[in-house]
């Protein structure tokens, strides 16, 4: 039973995030998913500063670590697959850190607080870790679980996530639709994680 939950934790994480962000946003008056970052739900001084990390960051971090640890523990996993699992664990740890240290209420502030700087670095490490993970799988030798199709899907997922990250950076500078591009980019990464999760069942 525990092994099945661990294998499914990648898929569960995506579903959990969607529900968690939706619930938190209901307690944040006039929250705009297209314009605002997910992290703004847990920003310092926000109406959901305490709620958001409790229902999002902390349980999600556990799910990511559980899934990454499960991948590492697989008997057939190769060195590259193990590294991919480690990246997912790092993503989970970063999720905890980003939840514990809130970002500033104004994402465009030129003088961020120490907590916001830690949050930003944690977010960067999270992002990088979940970009490297599918790239590692894309160059893993083909096997019973890691098929050519999944290797190609992993590579395309990383490329598409990068494309929307570039669009996110541009939207952030223009101060419009940053939240939308963040969600699409991260959604692609979580979709890859979900497919990987289902393949391991």
TrEMBL record:
Native source species: Pseudoalteromonas citrea
* Keyword Membrane found: yes
The answer to whether keyword Nucleus applies is no
Transmembrane stretches in the record are 6-25, 55-73, 79-101, 121-140, 152-172
Keywords (alphabetical) are: Membrane, Transmembrane, Transmembrane helix
Name it. DUF998 domain-containing protein
């Amino acid at each position: 039973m525990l092994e099945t939950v661990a294998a499914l934790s990648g898929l569960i994480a995506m579903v959990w995030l969607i529900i968690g962000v939706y619930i938190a946003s209901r307690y944040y008056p006039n929250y705009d998913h297209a314009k605002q970052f997910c992290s703004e739900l847990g920003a310092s001084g926000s109406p959901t500063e305490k709620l958001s990390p409790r229902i999002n960051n902390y349980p999600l971090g556990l799910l990511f670590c559980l899934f990454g640890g499960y991948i590492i523990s697989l008997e057939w996993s190769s060195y590259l697959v193990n590294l991919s699992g480690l990246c997912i664990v790092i993503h989970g740890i970063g999720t905890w850190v980003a939840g514990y240290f809130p970002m500033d209420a104004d994402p465009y502030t030129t003088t961020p607080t120490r907590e916001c700087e830690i949050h930003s670095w944690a977010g960067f490490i999270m992002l990088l870790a979940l970009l490297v993970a599918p790239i590692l799988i894309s160059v893993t030798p083909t096997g019973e679980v890691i098929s050519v199709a999944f290797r190609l899907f992993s590579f395309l997922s990383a490329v598409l996530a990068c494309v929307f990250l570039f669009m996110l950076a541009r939207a952030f500078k223009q101060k419009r639709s940053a939240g939308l591009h963040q969600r699409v980019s991260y959604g692609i990464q979580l979709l890859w994680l979900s497919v990987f999760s289902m393949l391991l069942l």
